[in-house]
Specification:
This protein is 34% helix and 20% strand. With 470 residues, it is an alpha/beta fold. The chain folds into 3 domains: 84 residues, MurE/MurF, N-terminal domain (Udp-n-acetylmuramoylalanyl-d-glutamate--2,6- Diaminopimelate Ligase, Chain: A, domain 1, 3-Layer(aba) Sandwich), CATH 3.40.1390.10; 213 residues, UDP-N-acetylmuramoyl-L-alanine:D-glutamate ligase (3-Layer(aba) Sandwich), CATH 3.40.1190.10; 137 residues, Mur ligase, C-terminal domain (Protein-Tyrosine Phosphatase, Chain A, Alpha-Beta Complex), CATH 3.90.190. The strands form 5 sheets. A 6-stranded parallel sheet has the order 9-10-8-11-12-13, with helices on both faces. The protein has a 6-stranded mixed sheet with strand order 17-18-22-19-20-21, with helices on both faces. Strands 2-7-6-5-4 form a 5-stranded mixed sheet.
């Protein structure tokens, strides 16, 4: 983003303290982290419960910031290139909203309980074959991260893809109002945030908030297998734009698009869909759930007129954000499926299904860790994962963490007792894997991010296996 300080003051509804001296000063972006000042950019000092960016304004200016915002209730502003605002966070969001309106790029918003980031990456892969695309990086999907994503967008961007996350009601509506999407995707409704929201219906209401800020006539693409979405869309309290178009995807044949054939392989999946006809699509992702995610991306691509051959090419070169069923080979030859970024009952069952579909391995092992923030039903939901596991899906279950003891409890209903083990430490778990696995085995790692199962994956990547069984 390149603007003058005078332009930025107008965009965010602030007042530049000295227009004559600083109005024409050029700004080449914004930043909020005082530890990483960006010369030539505007510093936005945010205020939180345990921090206040205003304390670091002078330091940032000394290190090259071309200007700063200043919140009115923080007393007398310092001398220099300062824009006075009522609230620095609101000003950041206003800057993002104004920049999007000036830029004229089309906006795709994505939310859902599971699959947001994977779907974002697939949408990016197919759209980038035809358009200049800007997308959310990392976890910049909240009320601070999304505006920063927008403001880092190049001026000639044609489509911006914005992931929208939340922890409670009202948050996605806020993001949608800022972004005003032309197209929005709801990937699914799962159990994440049950602790905060209490029920899947409330989670559905929170996700459907993405429609609140959409442009009139916008396209809402959503998982038609989930009846709660249609239920919420029919509620009188649900906010949506005039002329909202709807498009459904999923496994059921009453959706606008659904898979007509799926073939999983070790390197990815090949599939056809109702809308693609006889054209076979392939992508380097595992699992039926990712085919469903792809259906949403295909709808976006067709909406923007991406040619069929470009869609095929984009999918074949898909690159994913890390730790979403990465296929990793250790030095010993062991195959690992690393899906340790997050977990909910829905995504954990999907990962188990992926493991079940793999062929050609000596044994298949699932290392399953705690799923966090599930609320009062957490033990019941963990036990349900265990009950979902059967000997035809895998050979062994290794449960890590206090909640995952319930996974082991459920798994013992269908699995032999010697095939189910629990662990309280990652060191103990790693040692067991090194002593019992073979180079011809495959291991799935799935847990919430807070369990840090990637530590075990990293250890297995470089350590030799101790099992010499042929």
């Amino acid at each position: 983003m390149k603007r003058t300080l005078a332009q930025l003051a107008e965009m965010c509804g602030g007042t530049l303290t000295d227009v004559a001296a600083y109005g024409d000063v050029g700004i080449e972006g914004v930043f909020t982290d005082s530890r990483k000042p960006v010369p030539g950019s505007l510093f936005i000092p945010l205020v939180g419960e345990r921090f206040d960016g205003h304390e670091f304004v002078q330091t940032c200016v000394e290190k090259g910031a071309a200007g700063t915002l200043w919140q009115k209730d923080h007393g007398t502003a310092p001398q220099g290139a300062v824009i006075i605002v009522e609230d620095t966070l609101v000003a950041l969001q206003e800057l993002a909203s104004s920049y999007l309106k000036e830029n004229k790029a089309s906006i795709v918003g994505i939310t859902g309980s599971n699959g947001k980031t994977t779907t974002k990456d697939i949408v990016d892969a197919v759209l980038s074959t035809t358009f200049k695309v800007h997308k959310t990086q990392g976890n910049f999907n909240n009320h601070i991260g999304m505006p920063l994503t927008v403001l880092s967008m190049e001026p000639d961007t044609e489509i911006v893809i914005l992931e929208m996350g939340m922890s409670g009601r009202g948050e996605i509506e806020e993001l949608s109002v800022i972004a005003q999407p032309d197209v929005a995707i709801i990937t699914n409704i799962g159990e994440s945030h049950l602790l905060q929201l209490g029920s899947r219906l409330e989670i559905a209401r929170a996700k459907v908030e993405i429609a609140a800020g959409m442009k009139p006539g916008g396209l809402l693409i959503y998982n038609g297998d989930e009846p709660l979405i249609n239920q919420v869309l029919a509620e009188a309290a649900t906010k949506m734009p005039e002329g909202l178009q709807r498009y459904t995807f999923g496994l059921q044949t009453d959706n606008d698009d659904y898979p007509t054939g799926i073939m999983n392989a070790q390197s990815g999946v090949a599939f056809t869909t109702k809308q693609s006809g006889e054209v076979a699509l392939t992508m380097p992702l595992l699992g039926t759930h990712n085919v469903v995610n792809c259906l949403a991306a295909l709808a976006v691509a067709r909406h923007f007129g991406v040619a069929a051959e470009q869609i095929v090419a984009g999918l074949s070169h898909l690159k994913l954000t890390g730790m979403r069923i990465e296929i990793i080979n250790g030095v010993s030859g062991l195959t690992m499926l690393n899906d340790a970024y997050n977990a909910s009952p829905t995504s954990m069952k999907a990962a188990v299904d992926v493991l079940e579909g793999l062929k050609g391995y000596r044994i298949k092992v699932a290392v399953l860790g705690d799923m966090l923030e599930l609320g009062p039903q957490e033990h019941e939901l963990h036990r349900g994962i265990g009950e979902y596991i059967t000997p035809d899906k895998m050979n062994m279950v290794l449960a890590y963490g206090p909640l995952s003891a319930s996974i082991a409890e459920g798994a013992r209903q269908n699995m032999p007792a010697e095939a189910v083990h629990t662990f309280e430490s990652k060191e103990e778990l790693t040692r067991y894997l090194l002593e019992n696995l073979h180079s011809r085995d495959v291991v799935l790692f799935k847990a919430s991010r807070g369990m840090k199962l990637e530590d075990v994956v990293e250890a297995l990547k470089i350590a030799p296996l101790q099992n010499r069984v042929d």
